[in-house]
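User: I'm new to structure prediction. If I give you an amino acid sequence, what do you actually give back? Let's try with this one:
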Amino acid sequence: MKLTLRVWRQKNADADGAMSTYEVDGISPDMSFLEMLDVLNERLILAGEDPVAFDHDCREGICGACSLVINGDAHGPERTTTCQLHMRSFQDGDTIDIEPWRAAAFPVVKDLVVDRSAFDRIIQAGGYITAPTGSAPEAHATPVPKADADYAFEHAECIGCGACVAACPNGAAMLFTSAKVNHLGVLPQGAPERETRVLDMVTQMDAEGFGGCTLTGECATACPKGIPLTSITHMNKEWLRATRKVAGR
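Assistant: Good question. You get back a string of structure tokens that encode the predicted 3D arrangement of the chain. For your 249 residues, that looks like this:
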């Protein structure tokens, strides 16, 4: 395959960025998108040019590090992570636009790499259980209804990639935050901090400068792990219940 790549290049957060065009050929349809970028970078390095900076780690669709907007879509045309997107999803001769996540709360570090530490601070605000648990308990020591366990597992699948923010026209982080709130809130271990968790995490989310949620649904469509849009409505109910409880109503 021969492709034309239009890649966002930006030296640092303070510099102006622009799209640069590169031609690559000899690309196998079985390559992952990141492997294709590896080929581009090898050629740039051999030519004495600065390689394109992009984020990656496991390359197995688990860590959520790979974060690219490809032809206007978070993670590209398939509902998967960028590292699991293969070049057979494109045609020979295609022009592909590659950009970083676009959100005020995700400033560009360099080229395609953005700073997603805002997600870490949301987790630090309440995405944990403080009760000491010691060693791992026996699996059936704490009974959990099957429906609650399934719900918790569904939301625990969130890998924090940020595709929901990148896809949202408002740059909202509600799907990420709701996934982290909900997967702990339905479990017995998370019940003691249920109210403070949702209040603290939503407060931190707002403080990070993410946009407001208008339930357009683009976040759920882009999520590679299929976190449902109903997660947001569930968290909204939890937030309202916690607010009323704190107010004594």
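You can read the tokens as a compact description of the fold. Here is one thing that stands out. The radius of gyration is 20 Å.
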